[in-house]
Amino acid sequence: MRLISSIEAVRRETLLMALEHKQVGFVPTMGSLHDGHGSLIERAVKDNHFVIASIFVNPLQFGDGEDLDSYPRSIEKDKQIAEKAGVDVLFVPEVEAMYPSEIATKVVVSKLSQLWEGASREGHFDGVATVVTKLFAIVGPCTAYFGEKDFQQLQIIRQMVVDLNLPVEVVGAPTVREADGLAMSSRNVYLSPEERLAAPILRVALDEGLNLVRRGERDALVVMALMKKIVESEPLAVLDYVAAVNAKSLEIPEILHAEIRLLAAAYIGKTRLLDNDGLTLTE
Ligand code: AMP
After folding, report:
1. pLDDT per residue over 154-208, tens digit each?
2. Does the active-site annotation cover 37?
3. In the chain, what are the domain boundaries?
4. Superfamily classification of domain 2-173
5. Going by fewer Cβ within 10 Å, which terminus of the chain is more open, N or C?
6. Mutate to test the pocket of ligand 1, among 56, 62, 149, 263 (most ligand atoms within 8 A of CB)
7. Range 186-275: architecture per CATH
8. How much distance in Å is there from the Cα of 209 to the middle of ligand 1?
9. What's the CA gap between 265 and 275, in Å, rounded?
10. C-alpha to C-alpha distance for 34 and 82, rounded to whole angstroms
């Protein structure tokens, strides 16, 4: 595995691959790698001749008062994990290389970016869409792998790729969880032992919400009320939102049908956690 920090050097690598008709897989991350990232890398290694993973904690997607400065960073461990997982190039650009001057161009995916996470974190998805567009412009034609863990982000990137005709195939991969159901996240290290025990409440709320739908409930608001009650039953949790939505539009439908997604976000102590799960209704 080669560690590359220069944008030009990554371009040279992918140009060579294109000339040799080799398929490039790309896994963008913010580092502090865990098995969730690992599953994306494994998939990319399986599907492609050449795999690039990136580590970039993107200042543009953090709001004022968010954890940009304290975001967990573990580059030495990340290098080992990436190498073991079969990454060919680990692209770790400096902030100055990605944003040499104040950025005047932003990518805004309207509608989808305003909902849920976007409503709680103003400008967050503009930052995500902009940096992912930049990374796609650097890497070039590729298959890019994103986790369903950040389901809204995945749908926004799919929309962006279609809207802008980007030469990228987007693949979504299932959420990897701890044994007790907590979705793996770099931010889980912020949790105190007591908070860690409380954290799977989001998973419980999603499971019970899905069970209610499986038993025949089709009123999104009823499902949301149950999920809210469950999250609020945990004394250490402060609910941000729960939602039962159409998986494409991310809007709450009159009647749940076809592909649905349940979303949940809550603070456990100071740590903001999010999770989601879904199912497809056939009747
Ligand atoms: P991050 O480093 O948190 O920005 O995440 C980088 C990529 O890994 C994104 O596509 C995430 O959705 C994905 N990811 C993060 N956590 C998980 C997880 N527990 N399971 C699967 N994918 C994940």
Report:
1. 999 999 999 999 999 999 999 999 999 999 999 999 999 999 999 999 999 999 9
2. yes
3. 2-173, 186-275
4. HUPs (3.40.50.620)
5. C
6. 149
7. 2-Layer Sandwich (3.30)
8. 23
9. 6
10. 10
